[in-house]
Amino acid sequence: MSAQAPRAHPGDHPPVLVMVEAARDRWIALCARYRADAISLLETKNSNGAWLQVGFSVECCLKAAIMKKERFNRWPSRQAEPNLWVHDLEILFRRPGIDPKEFDHANPVAPALKTVPEWRRDHGYSLAKLPWKHARDICEAAFGGNGVVEWIANLYRLNI
């Protein structure tokens, strides 16, 4: 008789979604996935969806950078590091020492660092139509030639 797998209960999450033990590679993979989603959504003129995915991509990139800089081999628990369990890009930028408000304005990434922190998770709950130009601008700020994601990836040698 073969052993059966335990039954899932409501509220159980698949292991992939449990981020407590997430490795840096998982954050990098999520960053790339959200970036691809954002670009696809922008191309189909889904500005609200694109905006939301851009923020998640930057968030995952920052979390990978934090893991690398602080030499974490797993993501800290919410109890140990509650400030890392946020969707607030300004807080996450400051953790590795990046302050978008005090950044050198002569650096080519500076304009992007002014735009990207405008993203807020709660924007995803709005039913209002986001202008396509705003979504395009944040996509460019995150993923363009002088975009934040590429800059962070280069700074921390992340393969995104």
Explain the overall architecture.
It contains 6 helices and no strands. With 160 residues, it is mainly α. Helix 1 packs antiparallel against helix 2 (47-69), helix 1 (24-43) packs antiparallel against helix 5 and helix 2 (47-69) packs parallel to helix 5. It is globular, with a radius of gyration of 17 Å.
In short:
The protein is mainly α and 160 residues long. The chain has 6 helices and no strands. The radius of gyration is 17 Å and the shape is globular.
Work out the oligomeric state of the chains in this entry. single chain
Number of helices: 6
- CATH level-1 class: Mainly Alpha
Supply Rg.
Answer: 17 Å
CATH topology: Four Helix Bundle (Hemerythrin (Met), subunit A)
Question: Uncertain segments of ≥5 residues (pLDDT<50)?
Answer: 1-21
What is the number of domains?
1
Query: Structural class from helices and strands?
Result: mainly alpha
The rough form would be described as globular
CATH-level-2 architecture:
Up-down Bundle
Mean of all residue-level pLDDT scores: 88
User: What order do the SSEs take from the amino end to the carboxyl end, as H and E?
Assistant: HHHHHH
Question: Helical amount among residues, as a percent range?
Answer: 40-55%
State the end-to-end CA separation: 46 Å
Strand content: under 5%
Number of strands: 0
